[in-house]
Every structure is written in structure tokens, then in C-alpha cells.
């Protein structure tokens, strides 16, 4: 099946999935965009659920200070290996979580995971974490965070 570059690009933007996952989903769905979108979500959740429970002893402590200097955030994001901790997808996730905490001020990790993603309300932070787990192939957990404000 011949998949157009525009379809592939659009699916990648909407699902945040990798290029090969998008291509496979479009091929499996016979070019049907909506079916491919559902396949990616289902497969991402399946991949993430297989990783649950694995120890996460590596990771990063990401910081963010808002431009006005009145809000600061520290997030401890952990993964299974230091290789993934240095991965761009993992770093991007840690930064996005910092922005989320700065803007939404959640009370705890559970509330943070349930909160709608500030850049795209269709997804929660939990969904964003699961999509990143599917991309990098390792379990990821938000261990803790701290938000300071004047």
C-alpha cells in the first residue's frame, strides 16, 4: 500500500507516535486515517502496560523557571536506563511536565497524570507519558515534583 507523506505527517503530529509506528498503522488500516489513529493509541497503551512495574532507577531532575522569575519547578522523571535518560524524547517529556506543573499547579503526581495536557487537551499527562514509553521502550515514572511561586 502506498502511504502519502502528508498522511504520515498528519498522523505523527496528531498522535506523537514515531514515523515507523505511523506507517505501520496506516498500512494495517488500509490507509484509513481514523482507524490508523485508533490503532496507534491501542498499541501505545499495550506497549506501556507491558512496561508497568519495571524498576526505574535512572532519569533526570528537570528544572524550569518561568520568564517572570516568580514560578519555578523541579521534576524528578525516572526511567530504566541512563541511555533513555539521555534520549531527546525523554528530555522533551521532562520539560513538558515542568511546563505543565508550572501552569496547572497540581497537588500530587496522581492529579498531574490526570490533568489535560496544556498543549493539546485531547491528551492527559498520563497519555503523554505512555506515548513516550511506547517510543523509547522503557518504563517511565514521574517520581515527584516541586513548584515554588512568589
TrEMBL record:
Translation elongation factor EFTs/EF1B dimerisation domain segment(s): 72-148
Gene Ontology MF terms in the entry: translation elongation factor activity
Domain of life: Bacteria
GO CC field: cytoplasm
Keyword tags: Cytoplasm, Elongation factor, Protein biosynthesis
Main location: cytoplasm
Record-stated family: Belongs to the EF-Ts family.
Protein name as it appears in the record: Elongation factor Ts
Species of provenance: Candidatus Gottesmanbacteria bacterium GW2011_GWA2_44_17
Lineage: Bacteria, Candidatus Gottesmaniibacteriota
Record gene name: tsf
